[in-house]
Amino acid sequence: ACAPPSGRAWLRVIGGLALLVVGGRAVVAGAVELAAHWGLSEALIALTIVSAGTSLPELATSAVAAWRRNADIAVGNVVGSNIFNVFFILGASAVIRPLPFAPERSADVAVTVAASLLLFLAAFTGRRHRLDRWEAGVFLSCYAGYLGYLAVRG
């Protein structure tokens, strides 16, 4: 049988959760301030800086998993995180306060759908069922193009 968690373990969990809340507030406040300072939309900052910052742990996990030849972990981490973000995080956020959807955000949703379809095609075409370096280059190029589109769109 397992020993019950120590008070120290509970303190770490509660402290970690508190730091997550504080960190989340700091990220939002900083993003809003950057958007105002640079004259950019909050959506643009969220789609670039905030999303990149929150994805760094996923990048580290997937890169290490790929390096160690654990493809299931690398792909599952990315796909699972996106599913979790769309269904749980977006759903929980809308339960807290309904989120209006601006029609001009439709292009961002279309890019998300297109990226998912592109990943599906890349993963399930060919005999080896893997994402090759050239396909990864296509994904990176598409992202660079999307960032360019966001910069022009404002």
Summarize the structure.
The protein contains five helices and no strands.
Strand content: under 5%
Separation of termini?
Answer: 58 Å
Strand count: 0
Number of contiguous helices: 5
Major pleated sheet? none
Q: Which runs of at least 5 residues are low in confidence (pLDDT < 50)?
A: none
- Order of secondary-structure elements: HHHHH
Computed Rg: 19 Å
SSE-based structural type = mainly alpha
If you average the pLDDT, what whole number results?
84
Shape: globular
Helix content: over 70%
Question: What can you tell me about this protein's structure?
Answer:
The termini are far apart. The model has no long low-confidence stretch (mean pLDDT about 85). It contains five helices and no strands. It has about 150 residues and is an all-alpha fold. The longest helix has about 30 residues, at about 5-40. The relative contact order is 0.06. Helix 1 packs across helix 2 and helix 2 packs antiparallel against helix 3 (about 70-95).
